Amino acid sequence: MSIGVNIHHKIKKFTLDAEFHIQDPGITALFGPSGSGKTTLINIIAGLENPTRGHIQIKDHVIFEHNRRINLPIRKRRVGYVFQDARLFPHKSVRDNLYFGARRNSHKLARDEQDAIIEMLGLAPLLDRRPNKLSGGEKQRVALGRALLANPDILLLDEPLSALDHARKEEILPYFEWLRDHRKLPILYVTHSIDEVARLADNMVVIDNGKTLASGSVFEMLGRSDLPPLAGQFDAGTVLAARIASRDPKGEVSFLDCAGQRIVVPYLGHRANKDVRLHIRARDVMISRTPPNDISANNIIPVTIAKISSEQGDTLDVSLCFGHDADASFLAETSGRPTLHARITRWSGSRLKLGLHQKVYAVIKSVTVSGPRREL
Ligand code: ADP
Ligand code: MG
Fold first, then answer.
1. Residue 34 pLDDT greater than 70, yes or no
2. Which residue range is the domain that position 260 belongs to?
3. Which ligand lies nearest to the CA atom of residue 83 in the structure?
4. Which pLDDT does position 199 carry in this prediction?
5. In sequence order, what are the residues at sequence separation of 6 or more whose Cβ sits closer than 8 angstroms to the Cβ of residue 240?
6. In this predicted model, what pLDDT tens digit does every residue of 303-336 receive, in sequence order?
């Protein structure tokens, strides 16, 4: 097991009850609104705060267990922590900041591995600078480098991109993707951005008001409209795996293959056969009873209604299984068939007389594509 947490903690009026077990390495998003306890939880994992009771395990090491009085000190926990603000030492050079934690580390990385990290993060030209001469994105890269040079068992990232603008985010995101794909380092990534979750995460833990509500694969979790932090945002939707198949002759669009279904997206470059990930928000999916013709949306997919739920007041959440040939066994959400999620008004639901197992068309207004998982 990569990480197991079951803790109870109380600070003044705030109570945190967190329980999750993530088996795979990869990136686990810790997702929840502001004030839900995300920073408190990763501070506890890092050893910066002690929980009232419970246990925490990383890889096969128990780092905290209240009953057995196990409480490893911070430096023995082998966690790399990147704070929301980079927190570099202002009076030290980038070089000294980078090697600060690594120096007294008994699990030191070999010299060539250290150099590879400096290289991968493009830090070589910055080594002699002071932090006040760095941009926000550069500071975060130094903070990430410092955490990695300590050779951690797990990386904790507390909203590492929230202080950056869109361009600087795009500059840093590939490094996280590289860590996930090449270094197999488990990463717990705190965020309240669904876009970051959809792009990066393999697994997801949802936290709200001091309680972890659910955890599991990002494909499964993002489709759940019953979890308040997701439902509240109107951002829940579907994450699907797809592959670049071909392009139109003019190179204006790319055609993706998603479980046999063709999806059209803005041109992604000459990257046939690359795997990509699609994020389709529930609010960007419309439902039509007949295949619409004169419509600007490029993606009209035959689907079968697998589930209709209506917990959210005047809206309906409709699960749509790919294909018109789906029988009842396929319509179970666990069948492995891609399922889209649509959020429509209750009024449109009754106007269209939507019902279970009905064959309809999903009209997709917008698809966000992330990946291809690129090589740096
Ligand atoms: P998040 O990172 O999800 O925004 P935090 O973990 O920072 O949430 O905070 C969770 C809750 O704990 C908040 O209500 C916050 O006000 C409270 N809190 C955090 N640290 C302290 C502290 N040292 N003393 C009192 N309350 C705190
Ligand atoms: Mg926080």
1. yes
2. 239-370
3. 2
4. 85
5. 219, 258, 259, 277, 278, 280, 338
6. 999 889 876 678 888 989 999 986 666 666 556 6
Report which ligand 1 atom has the smallest distance to the Cα of 41: 6
**Cβ of 43 less than 6 Å from ligand 1:** no
The residue whose CA is least distant from atom 20 of ligand 1 is: 40
Strand pairing category for 27-31 and 187-191 = parallel
Cβ of 104 below 6 Å from ligand 1: no
Gap from CA of 114 to ligand 1 centroid (Å): 35
Nearest-10 crossing angle of helices 111-120, 136-149: 160
Are residue 276 and residue 313 in the same domain, yes or no?
yes
Is the distance from the beta carbon of residue 10 to the nearest atom of ligand 1 less than 6 Å? no
Nearest-atom index, ligand 1, CA of 36: 3
Domain boundary, last residue among 206, 231, 256? 231
pTM for the model: 0.82
* 375 located within any domain: no
Ligand nearest to the Cα of 34, by number: 1
Residue 13 Cβ < 6 Å to ligand 1: no
| pLDDT of amino acid 161 | 87
Tell me the two tokens of residue 80.
Answer: 């790399």
Looking at 176, 206, 231, the residue that finishes a domain is 231
14 CB less than 6 Å from ligand 1? Answer: yes
Q: Do 95 and 187 sit in the same domain of this protein? A: yes
Q: Is ligand 1 within 6 A of the CB of residue 212?
A: no
Residues β-bridged to residue 221: none
Beta strands 27-31 and 203-208 are parallel
Measured from the Cβ of residue 345, the count of other Cβ atoms closer than 10 Å reads 12
pLDDT digits (tens, 9 = 90+) for 167-216: 888 888 888 888 887 777 889 999 988 888 888 898 999 999 999 999 99
Number of domains in the chain: 2
**Residue 376 covered by a domain:** no
Confidence grade of residue 47 (pLDDT, cut at 50, 70, 90): very high
The alpha helices in 24-155, defined as continuous H runs, are: 38-46, 94-99, 111-120, 136-149
Judge if 79 and 167 occupy the same domain.
yes
Q: What share of the chain is helix, strand, coil (3-state, %, to 5)?
A: 25, 35, 40
